[in-house]
Design a protein that fits this description.
The protein contains 9 helices and 10 strands. By secondary structure, the chain is of the alpha/beta class. It has 2 domains: 240 residues, SGNH hydrolase (Rossmann fold, 3-Layer(aba) Sandwich), CATH 3.40.50.1110; 53 residues.
């Protein structure tokens, strides 16, 4: 019998993620992907609150702002094309109104500062080792905000630098909760604009950096390897041929479930999925007695679940 795939078989990790854990995801768009599924199944998750961040330096710098509960001022922002931007945050935080930017970022920092001691699990996704340094202050930025490339130095972090950023990130999170579980992943999205060779070197450095820091309560989930080695086919990519498509992300989620969920969590997911499917059902007559009775029964099931599991994020 022929085998046309090199499937990655994952064993259970030595801890399980459950619905009553408080989970935090940060990093590249893969953190959004996993966060979306955790949200869908009503886990208590704070999903990529700072926006997409790609490299270990940016992730650490942005986390530090929240960990210090630092108040951002106008001097921390940059103005470009009549908009105010933060070099530590995604362009979702940018605005023509200065006060709006400051309010949104400072409110977020305050919320995350309060959340950090409560976290049980943090999922960190690195996308690249390549960084952009703003020439005026020599600080690594999280987002260039379409400012001309001539304003930045572009370079690849050394293994020593990556190791230092990872260690400091772990220490920072442990300073709030010494028993916190940290799961590192590498984004399967290829940064092709950097070229095939630099993309591979960049990803390799991240893998080595994480591997050198694995230990008690520090884990690696092989999302990158699942796409590169198991789903080795362009049918699992979007049209741009760089980003994994919906089918690939769902497949990774199934692997994630095998690795991190116990039987109780899986059973609860099934109950939640039944309710979600029922709620997504489109009736022919939404005002019919039969449909109203159906809605009432679904509400009853939700309330029943919440009585048993009050931590569910419905």
């Amino acid at each position: 019998m022929f085998n046309f795939r090199t499937e990655i078989d994952l064993q259970k990790y030595d801890f399980s993620i459950t619905h009553n854990h408080i989970i935090f995801t940060i990093g590249s768009c893969f953190s959004d992907n996993i966060g979306d599924y955790l949200e869908k199944y009503k886990f208590n998750v704070c999903k990529n609150p700072f926006g997409v961040l790609y490299n270990p330096a940016s992730i650490l710098n942005t986390l530090k702002l929240a960990a210090e509960n630092r108040k951002i001022t106008k001097e921390d922002l940059i103005s470009n094309q009549d908009e105010y931007h933060s070099f530590y945050h995604h362009s979702d935080f940018s605005s023509h109104n200065l006060e709006t930017v400051l309010l949104n970022i400072n409110n977020l920092n305050r919320e995350i500062f309060k959340l950090l001691p409560k976290l049980d699990v943090v999922i960190i996704t690195y996308g690249t080792s390549i960084v952009y340094e703003y020439k005026e202050n020599l600080k690594v930025v999280s987002n260039c905000h379409k400012i001309p490339a001539s304003k930045f130095n572009k370079f690849m972090l050394s293994l020593k630098d990556i190791d230092g950023y990872i260690k400091e990130t772990i220490e920072l999170l442990r300073s709030f909760n010494k028993n916190i579980k940290i799961v590192f992943t590498i984004s399967p999205v290829r940064h092709w604009k950097d070229g095939a060779i630099d993309n591979n070197v960049s990803k390799s450095k991240l893998i080595v950096g994480i591997n050198d820091n694995l230990g008690e309560n520090i884990y690696y989930f092989p999302a990158y390897e699942i796409v590169m080695d198991d789903l080795r086919d362009y049918r699992f990519y979007k049209k741009d041929l760089y980003h994994p498509n919906e089918l690939a992300v769902e497949y990774i989620w199934e692997k994630f479930k095998v690795a991190f969920f116990n039987e109780e969590t899986l059973a609860l997911n099934n109950q939640i999925e039944y309710i979600l499917n029922a709620l997504n059902h489109k009736p022919r007559n939404p005002n019919s007695p039969k449909h109203l009775q159906f809605i009432e029964s679904i509400n009853y099931k939700i309330n029943e679940l919440l009585l048993k599991h009050p931590y569910l994020n419905f």
